[in-house]
Design goal:
The protein has eleven helices and two strands. The protein is an all-alpha fold. It has two domains: 62 residues, no CATH class; 169 residues, Orthogonal Bundle (MetI-like fold). Helix 3 packs across helix 7 and helix 3 packs antiparallel against helix 11.
Length: 253
């Protein structure tokens, strides 16, 4: 196993050195093509998050000018707001822990699964999975509302009634027993965005020569292939996917 690891490490080092040399030659073009995304990221994500943090340190009632009060808002939430501590904070933490890592892992699993399919089928499925990012939020709200409608016209109720799994329609969107689960499902489905495409591109860009060399050196199964070859070879895409997953979690929350 040590021999296999040393061999893989040597091959990765050679590949990374080659990529670094190529990047130095094309760094200007890379910065130019990255500039539009960087600008949009700063305008719509970085700056609003920074301003929200600053605003949270002030007393602002929409009438007077904001007054700086340091961490008093946070102290009040943690010491005086029982509803926040009993319901809002635990549910928010649970939501973040499920949707963040869950969406990240789901994006990688789906990207890896699609990478094993023929090109045409992979393209169609990738478009379907990426569709949440291409669809307006209000449109998706209507779609999910129809799907979980609390009468027989709701798709989920219709299917369950036809299968005989329920006797009467269930009002999913009005029931506290189902609402949190529905939020998780919608958030996980919506997380299939740019991070998913980046992971898919990263997996497809891994050289087949690395896989062949690894199997010659003693690699035994697909699990070892993913752990020792696929993931190390696509660290930039994995990092990008993690960042986008965090952003999606805060946006959904």
């Amino acid at each position: 196993m040590r021999k296999l690891w040393q061999s893989l490490k040597s091959k990765f080092k050679t590949m990374i050195d080659k990529e670094k040399k190529q990047f130095k030659q094309d760094d200007k073009a890379a910065y130019i093509f990255s500039l539009p995304y960087i600008i949009l990221f700063m305008i719509f994500i970085a700056v609003p998050v920074f301003l929200a943090i600053i605003l949270s340190l002030t007393l602002f009632d929409m009438v007077r000018q904001p007054q700086f009060i340091a961490a008093n808002n946070y102290i009040y939430l943690l010491t005086s707001d029982e509803e926040f501590m009993r319901y809002i904070l635990p549910n928010t933490i649970r939501f973040a822990l499920i949707v963040g890592p869950g969406g990240y892992v789901l994006s990688f699993v789906m990207a890896w699964a699609l990478a094993q399919l023929p090109h045409k089928l992979r393209t169609v499925l990738a478009i379907i999975l990426y569709s949440p990012s291409l669809t307006a939020g209000i449109t998706m709200t209507v779609v999910w509302r129809v799907f979980f409608a609390g009468d027989e016209s709701g798709y989920l109720n219709f299917i369950l009634l036809e299968l005989g799994l329920i006797v009467e329609p269930i009002a999913y969107l009005q029931s506290p027993d189902f609402l949190f689960t529905i939020m998780i499902i919608v958030a996980l489905w919506s997380s299939m965005g740019v991070g998913f495409l980046a992971m898919l591109a990263g997996i497809l860009n891994v050289s087949n020569e690395l896989y062949e060399a690894a199997y010659i050196d003693g690699l035994k199964n697909r699990f070892q292939e993913v752990i020792h070859i696929t993931i190390p070879a696509m660290k930039p895409q994995m990092l990008f996917g993690a960042v986008m997953s965090i952003v999606a979690t805060f946006s959904a929350g």
